[in-house]
Amino acid sequence: MAEKPQPVRVLYCLVCSLPAEYCEFGPDFEKCKPWLIQNAPDLYPGLIKETNAKEADKVAEQLQSAGISSSSGDGATPSGVTSAPKEEVKRLPGGKIKKKEKQEVVIEKVTRNKRKCITTVKGLDLFGVKLSDASKKLGKKFATGASVVKGPTEKEQIDVQGDISYDIVDFITETWPDVPEAAIYFIEDGKKVPAA
């Protein structure tokens, strides 16, 4: 006589209440990970490796912040001497690094309909200039329409109707003394060229 089939025992996650092998498809896999590592390590072996790697990164980061290098100690920099200051960076979720933006004003002339031009001014806000006030001043000075719009990179810029690139550098440096002329660039033939 054949053996009587036994019921299958299913391990359910206490966080999302799905079977443990389906947690990765659940509403929040990140919250389930600690529970899975502790109760079902054989189902997700990659999680253990990932956790170990994150812990190693944290230790290395703590060592660097304390001034201890994890390098081989070849004596390239003597102890007590700090290296050149690094560029300020910001950590985003997921481990991505966001670099601090350079303070520069970029002026670009875009031709549309073969005759009409639009001059875009990007980066004035990095110098503490309020873009709505700047667009009003540019519109009054050059007797044209000027507005604040979101550019292709989702950052606000000023669009001025017409080709005003010939006088705009002088106007910017006179109106906002915080903006140095060395920080103003033109885009010509796809290349950034200093205005000075």
TrEMBL record:
This is Translation machinery-associated protein 22. PROSITE patterns: SUI1. Residues 65-76 have a biased composition (Low complexity). Residues 105-176 form the SUI1 domain. Interacts with the 40S ribosomal subunit. InterPro entries: DENR/SUI1_TIF (IPR050318), DENR_C (IPR046447), DENR_eukaryotes (IPR005873), DENR_N (IPR048517), SUI1 (IPR001950), SUI1_dom_sf (IPR036877). Its main location: cytoplasm.
